[in-house]
Every structure is written in structure tokens, then in C-alpha cells.
Hints:
Blueprint: E1 11-15, E2 18-22, H1 32-37, H2 44-60, H3 65-77, E3 88-90, E4 93-98, E5 107-112, H4 113-118, E6 125-129, H5 130-134, E7 141-147, E8 153-159, E9 166-172, E10 183-192, E11 198-204, E12 210-217, E13 226-230, E14 237-242, E15 248-254, E16 259-265, E17 274-277, E18 285-290, E19 298-303, E20 312-317, E21 327-330, E22 336-343, E23 347-354, E24 357-364, E25 370-373, E26 381-385, E27 394-400, E28 407-412, E29 418-423, E30 435-443, E31 449-457, E32 468-471, H6 488-492, E33 497-501, H7 511-515, H8 523-538, E34 547-552, H9 554-565, E35 570-576, H10 582-586, H11 594-601, H12 608-617, E36 630-636, H13 645-657, E37 664-669, H14 680-697
Parallel strand pairs: 32-33, 32-34, 34-35, 35-36, 36-37
Antiparallel strand pairs: 1-2, 3-4, 4-5, 5-6, 7-8, 8-9, 9-10, 10-11, 11-12, 12-13, 14-15, 15-16, 16-17, 18-19, 19-20, 20-21, 22-23, 23-24, 24-25, 26-27, 27-28, 28-29, 30-31, 31-33
Helix pairs in contact: 3-14, 8-9
Amino acid sequence: MPAPTAERRPEKTVHHGRERIDDYAWLKDKNWQQVMHDPSVLDPAIRAYLEAENAWTEAALEHTEPLQEHLFTEMRGRIKEDDSSVPAPDGPYAYAMRYELGAQHPLIVRQPRDAARKGDHGAEEVLLDADFMASGKAYFRMASADHSPNHKLIHYAVDEMGSEFYTIRIRDIASGEDFADAIPRTTGSAVWSAGSDYLFYTWLDDNHRPKRVMRHRVGTSPDDDVVIYEEDDPGFFVGVSDTQSGRFIVLSTHDHETSELRLIDASQPESEPVMVAPRRKGIEYRVDHHAGRGRDDELVILTNADGAEDFKIATCPLASPGPENWRDFVPHREGRLILDMVSYRDHLVRLEREDGLPRIIVHRYADGEEHAIAFQEEAYSLGLMPGYEYDTATIRFSYSSMRTPSEVFDYEMGSRERTLRKRQEVPSGHDPDRYVVRRLHATSWDGETVPVTLLYRTDTPLDGSAPCLLYGYGSYGISIPAAFNTNWLSLADRGFVYAIAHIRGGKDKGYHWYRDGKGAKKANTFKDFVAVGEYLADAGITARGRIVAHGGSAGGMLMGAVANMAPDLFLGIVAEVPFVDVLATMLDDTLPLTPPEWPEWGNPIESAEEYDQIAAYSPYDNVREQAYPNILALCGLTDPRVTYWEPAKWIAKLRTHNSSNATILLRTNMEAGHAGAAGRFDRLKEIALVYAFALKIAGALKIAGKAE
């Protein structure tokens, strides 16, 4: 069966005097907006090509199907199928999410607060059954679900196409019936007014941009909804949230480096929004509200204003929120990146990272006393779980490492007592002592040291013979946590070293780590990743040509870039929903994410210099005649973030320029979008496909892992 060949139909564009020829531009359906809503309208020629690629991939990996099935069964066996979250208290109830045996989607439940405290599930109410709602649908994802302040209603949002156009519905808890007022074309998130009679949500335009914040009165037609705020600049998105106190609804306007917030009193939902601080280029800020005992109402502000690159926390009077009134509360300290904060009545809790490791700091408002919550492992992940309540002395956080299953703790901020509320169960068994987690540092091209986290079995030889799966992302300031993931054990148990490269473009070493991996300095991201691979090979942890690189979305762009830069370093490349046609996408301001992305990548429409910067690394534009490694690209037809035609064009061009015998494959999920399959078990099948590909090219096609 020959590999599919896409027809070459050259299209020429010229920008800043630079001519660009695109042989495969036709794979972008001229009707792409409609395809997001209704995939059946896809151009038949494009559909035929994508289906031919799917058939080719299925045939190429057919002999791995027994392994895929075993991997799926193995990974599913590590999931506690009847799992549940720790109930989160809110007034008279405690709310939770749980799964039933065999269910792909969760139940949203609640029980009386006292019953939850005692572990009595007899009085549980099922508020939503997402598995029932998903029955018979090719795709179903529930984005959010939140009960009203009066505990009588619940709103939830679902997407049935994978295109991330969510419809919000409102259910009466007592009757179990939905109101008639289904709200279409939303981002999926919504916030209740204090009186439970209004919802605030974000509306998406035809180009999938969050453009308006809307107010909806429960029980009325969405056609009558009121526009609270509309953003005219296509480079900015809008969103809606609320403060921990529940006092304010927060309207945010932002791109990747600038923000502007407005507040609405949640008890007066028809009042006009009040500006906190107008946007200033490069200034980010977030707010919470504090009304503590014996203190006037104030805003608590996390910001990088006044040169606070790693962020600081300021406060200001609620009545005078302008930046001229911001006063430092937790001053900026270089190298200590403040990631998040939550203001409770008596305490301010913040999550920060220093020296590559996270910690939680509890600050008591009454006297300024602070203490830290931290752990001793070499690399670990820590997360805040704010909960519903404001007037509380108890916070909740999660902890895990790559060898330690996730643990959820309740923490008394006064007594500093920790209570373990849940430890992740691995039904098929897990012995952390069989695995090693290490944090190493590779030296990049310019002398910077790049953190690397490793997971491998204690009996894995570190003599260069072990294959390595090297994961990377490196964009938008997102840091990849050294957290527990049961799926990775399937590779470790078959002799792989699993490695995470904490490269520039994330914030693993502070905000400068992000700044040095974006815009004109984007090449640092790719060079860091290559340096990590070379370091692991030189150290004998793996070897050149034994590394399978893996990344998704912007991490998929990384995959395309390093495939062009250092193809001989890698045995294979797995690129999930890869952002590989960077230049063409940044030149098309009608696409959903293009204008807000310009601060991250540059604006090649306005700037010849930024055009050249992007053209120098854009993976699709830099495919050339050379021997490429094995490549597997995965995408979703209705993906609004990384559109399907990017990986389709990339694979087509790779086939015409590759001089090796490598396997080059494209698989398009014709019924899903950016996140792939929505069900928790269906998603495992996609992971099993990726792992089978990695094991195939590494020559490790055995069904079972190492003997215990």
C-alpha cells in the first residue's frame, strides 16, 4: 500500500517583498468556519486525503494492534474506575465529582456537609450524569458545572463537536429538569450572580474569539441577553470569573502580556462594570478581594508592574483601585516567581516557585506572619485547590511526583496540621521504590542550564542502550510539572527513560525563562531541547538516535523545529495537534487565535523583521531535503486552536523532501478537536497508539513490561 501523496497546487503570496510558495494551501477548506460547527461540510477532496492518511497510518501500525490493546488494558488497569474527588464544602452541602465503573464521563454529586465529613454517602444527590448525556454521541465533553449560591440550580456546558463552541444549560436541582434557555456559542465558563438569578458568560464570534461578556437572566431567552462588555481589538480576548469572596464578578481583557480588569458587584448584577486599571502594554495583573475582620475592603493584586518581572502582590482600597494607589504587600524578589494567590478572610495564600521547585506560602493578615508548605523530593508538583468558601481556616492542596501518586491534603492554616484526604489508588499496583526520579541540568548553547526531570526503573541500564521519550513544550510561560502520570509507567516498565525538558519559553526558572523563549528569542526554546537530548546521550542515559521526542500544540511546533534542526539526534518524533505552519497562521488574521498570538510570536503582517524571525524557524517553511526521523502527527478535524490543515500540510511536504526510510504518519480524529477523544478511556486508546509507535521504532514491541 503506497503512502498517500497530496496534490501539489502552488499558491504564491508576497509580504514585505518576500515571496512564499505553498504547495498544499488547498488543504485549508475555504469553508473552515462551517466545518467547525458541522464536519460533514468538509470539502470532499480534503476529506478523501485525510481518510487516505488515516488508512495508511492504520496499515503501517496494524502489527502493533495487539500491543496497543495491551497498553490500553494496562493503562486502564491503573485507573480506579469508581474514583471520586474529595467533597468540597460550601455552606450546607459538599460537592464532588465521581465516576461509576465503566463510565467515560463523571457524575456531579453533592451530599449534606456533615454527612460528607463522616464519609456517609447515603444522602448523596446526583446533580448531573455526564455519561448518560454522552450516550449515543460520537463526541461529548462537559467543560464546567457549578451550582448557584442558593444551591437550587446548576449550570453546565457541553461541546458535542470538539470545536470548543460550548452550549450552557441551567438545571433545576429539585426537579432535575433543564430550563429552556440553552445558551450557544460560549467558551464554556460562566459565573453566577449573588442572587442566583443571573449568569455571566463569554460569547464566541464566528472566528472563535471570546469577544463579549454577556449577562443572562435565568428563565429568559438567550436572544434577550445583554452585552456587558465587548472588545473591539481582535488581539485581546475577554473572560469572566469571580473573586474567592464571591463579592465581585471579574471581567478580564487580555492577551499574553497585557491585562485589563473590570468589576461588577455580584449582588447588583445590573450595575455597570468598574475599571480597576486601564491596560498598559506589558503590564499583567489579577485581582482578588479581601474584607477581613477589622479591615476595610481592599483589592489584592498580583502584578508585574513597576519592573516586578517575577511578580509581586500589592493592595489598594476598594474605592480607589487605580495603579497610583497600589502599595506593595509582598514585594518583588528576583528569582521567586509568584504563580498564583487566593485571598481568604484571615489569610492570603500564594503559590510560588524558586530554584525550580514550588511551595505554598500562608500569610496571616492579622500580624503578617508567614510560613511555607514544601516537600523534600528532588522534583515534585504542588497545586492549590481554592474551594468554594472564603471564611475558612482550611485550605486544600495536591502533591505528587513522577513516582509518587497524587495526594490531596486539607491544611489548617492556624495549627499547621495536615490531613491526608485522598491518595491516588493504582488498582493494578504501584511500587514507588521500583522507580527513580532525578532532576538534572543540561548546558545549552549559550551557557544557560536547562532543568531536566527523569523517570526510569531502578533496573534500567544507563549505558546508552535505553531508549528515551523526551517531552517538551516551551511556550506561553507554561511549565510542565514533575507530576505523577500512571501512563508513563508503561514506557518505563519497557525500558524507556521518560524525560521532561524544562526549556525556555516556560517559567520553570522565573519569568525571564519565558521572556528568553518568545518572540525574537524563540530559537532558544529549540536549542535548549536539542541541548537536553545531546546531554542525555553524552551522559549515557540514552544515545543519539535512541530518543523519541514528544510534544503537543505549541510543543508540536517544537517537534517540527527540532526535526529540521537535528534530525539525526532523534529516533522518532510524536507531534500531537502540532502548530507547525506558524508563518502562514500568523499572517492570517481571520484565524481564531492569530491576533492574540502576535505578542508571543511576532506580527509578520506589520513587521518585516518579525516575518523573517518566524520564517527562520516555522517548521513547515523549513522542511528541506534531508533524512528525517520517524514521525507520527495527530490532529483533530474540528480543532479551533491548531487547525487540521497545519499537520496535514506538514506531513505532505515531509514526504516529498525526506531521503530516509523513516515512517511518516498522519492520523486525523474526524470526530474531535484539540484535546482529542473526550472520554477518559477513549483518550487512553490515543495514548496507546502513540506509545506503540514509540515502542515499535525503538524495537521494543513486546506485549508485557519487565518482569516484576
